[in-house]
C-alpha cells in the first residue's frame, strides 16, 4: 500500500518525483486512459454497431439511432459529474473513482457480449438489444462524468506545490492516449480478422443478402472484450492506493461538506466560480480540443473525402508526435501561470484556424482545393425558405428546396454563393453557368455529375487525395505536410488542456472541489465541445463555405479568452491545503 503521508506536500518544486507520486499518477492515469478508450470505441465503431443493434430500420435511420446512442453518452456526463462529484466530496476520492472505473469497464465488456437485434429477434425480443445498448452507453457517460474529476483531484492533492501543473498534465494525456489506443486496437483487429477470416453473408427477413467482412460481422466485439484485461489491471493498481492527504486532513478535522451539491451550486459565492470556470476556462478549452482532434478527423473524412483508414492513420501520427505537449505546457504553467498558457492557446487557435484548415485542404485534397477557387456555384433561392440545419442527433428533417440544395452542396464540400430570388420562384443551383432546378427529379444525380464535369474531383478516382496504404506509409511530402498541420492543431489542444486540471482544482476549496470542478468541465467538454461537428456543419450549409464552420470554435475560444482574462484569478501559487480556511477570491 502507498501511504499518503509518505508524500510530503511541502517539498520544493525542484526535487525529483518520488516513487509514491509516480504510483499515484500511474494509478490515476492508467484508469482514466482505460475509461477514455472505452468511451471512444463506440464512436469509432458507431456505423458497425448501428447495423448490429438497429437492423430493423433502413440504413439511414439505423445510423441516426447509433449516433443518438453515442450522443447519450455525452449528454449524461454532467449528471455523472453531479452524482460522483457529490460522492467524492463526501466519502472520498479513491473510493469514488474506483466505482466509476468498475461501471465503465463492466458496461464496455457487456457491449462486446450483447446479442444483436437479429439474434434476439429470433426469440421475439429483438427490442431488448438496442434498449440495453442505450442503457450501457448511458452508464459509460455517467462513469466518465465522475472519473475525470476524481483522477484530477486525487493527483493534484498528492502533488507538491509548484508541480501541480506538471503532475496533473499526466491525467490530461489520458483522453488523447485513450483515443490513440482505441484507434490502434481497432485498426490492428480489423487488419488481422479481415485477413484471417472470410466475409459473412447475411440474409434479412425480406430475403435481402448482405456481405459483411469478418470484422463487421463479429470482429468488432474484440476491442470491447479486450477492455476486461485493462479493467483488471486498473482496479488492481487503484486498490493499492490510499486516500488523498487533503481529503484525509479534512475528514479528520470534521470540516468536510455534508451537502456538497447545495454548497457548490446553491450558494452564489461558490456557484459563480463554477460559472466562470465554464465560460472562462473549459468552454474554450473544449472547442480547441474538439477542433484539433475530432473536428479535424471529421473535416478530413466528411469534407475532404479522405478515406477512413488514411484519416485515422494521419490523426494517430499527429497524436503520437504532439502528446508530449501536455506535459510541457503543464510544467510551463507551473512557472508562468495557468492563465497565460490556457488563454494563450485559445487566442492562438482563434487567430490561426482559418489558414491552417485552408492549408489542410490544399495538401490533403489538392484537386478539391483548386476546384473551390475556380468553379463558380450559385444557389438562387428565397432566403425565407432556408433553414439553419442544426441537427446534433440526426433526427431533424430539412425538406425545403433551399435546404436540399445547400445540404447536397455542403456534403460535396462545394463552396457556393447565395443569390436571393422572389418568393414563389423555384430554387436553382447554377454550376459554371448551367442551371439545375431542385424540383427536377434527377437533381440529386445531375448536380454531382455537373460538379465533376466542371472540375470538382469525383469521390472515386481522385488521384490527388492523400492516401496511406498502411500505418507506416507516411514518408511522402504530401502526407508529412498533412501530419505536420494536424500536429500543430493537436499542440493547440495540449496547450489549453495540459494545465486545465490544475487550474480547476486550485479554483475550488477541498470540501466541494470534486463536485465544483467536475460540472463545468463536463458541460464544457460534453456540450460545448460535443456539439461542435453538428454546429459547424450547419454553419457550412448555411453560408456555403467549408471553412465557415470554424467560426463556432473561434467564437467560443475568443469568448473564453476575454472572460478568463478579466475574471479568472491566477492560481498557480495557491496553497490548496489551506485554501479552505483562507480562500482568496
Brief description of this entry?
The chain is mostly helical. It has helices spanning 19-44, 46-53, 59-75, 77-91, 93-113, 117-121, 128-156, 164-196, 214-219, 221-239, 245-253, 260-265, 268-303, 308-322, 324-336, 338-364, 366-374, 401-411, 443-454, 477-497, 500-507, 513-529, 532-543, 551-567, and strands spanning 200-203, 209-212, 377-381, 417-420, 428-431, 434-437. It is built from 24 helices and six strands.
Query: Can you tell me the overall shape?
Result: globular
SSE topology string: HHHHHHHHEEHHHHHHHHHEHEEEHHHHHH
Q: Report the C-alpha radius of gyration, rounded.
A: 25 Å
Q: First CA to last CA: what distance?
A: 37 Å
Strand % is under 5%
How can the largest sheet be summarized? Answer: 4 strands, mixed
Strand runs, count: 6
